[in-house]
Amino acid sequence: MPEEFKAGCARPTGGPVGGAGPEDPAPAPEIPVKEVQRPMIMVGRKAPDFSAPAYLQGKFVTVSLSEYLGKWVILCFYPGDFTFV
Amino acid sequence: MSIDSVFVHKMWNDNELSKMVKGGVPFPMLSDSGGKVGSVYGVYDPDAGVETRGRFIIDPDGVVQGFEVLTPPVGRNVAESLRQVQAFQLVRNSKGTEATPSGWKPGKMTLKPGPDLVGKVWEVWKTKMAFD
Fold this sequence. Notes:
The complex is a heterodimer. In chain A, 0% of the residues lie in helices and 25% in strands. Chain A is mainly beta. Chain A has a four-stranded antiparallel β-sheet with strand order 1-4-3-2, with no helix packed on it. In chain A, strand 3 and strand 4 form a beta hairpin. Chain A is extended, with a radius of gyration of 17 Å. Chain A starts with a strand and ends in a 9-residue tail after the last strand. In chain A, 19% of the residues are buried. In chain B, a hairpin with a 4-residue loop joins strand 2 (44-45) and strand 3. Chain B has helices at 6-20, 36-40, 78-93, 121-124; strands at 29-30, 44-45, 50-51, 53-58, 64-70. At the A-B interface, strand 2, strand 3, strand 4 and strand 5 of A face helix 1, strand 1, helix 2, strand 3 and strand 4 of B.
């Protein structure tokens, strides 16, 4: 289950888990190849795992999608807090 | 999940959302600064610097069963999302032997695909059932 963390001055961040992310230290290939497109999300395919800081009932916690294996998940994105809709 | 920090999430929950939902938001309000996760899910708009209204239904195996993405001014239909989860749950529990036709909601007839049903859906499913 989500692990609590202490809030400090640094803004907590998360990101995708596994796979080549922006911070992946793997060197870029020298030979210019066709631009590699990120795989699109497709129904019937695995949802990309991620880890992200969250606010949950008075606590700051770190949540990974993989913690929810065995459960149904509705993952919602939205433009921003206090944006009316 | 949005690009807001967990601190802003706390302020929004404590000062506004908790006045709409008793006890506040019961699920994690995820923070995705920089839109790193949103980029992977194809919902981060780098020009606006925010995430669009994406909604993904993920099953117990971690498989995406459905998604919907709207531009910011139009809100979602929560009841429709729940209906879809109920439909996916029914299909999963039937181990794929049942399917939910257009307009299905809990309690309504399902279809049992097989050789006998080919070309016969019109006999058991009527167009008005998509709307009632």
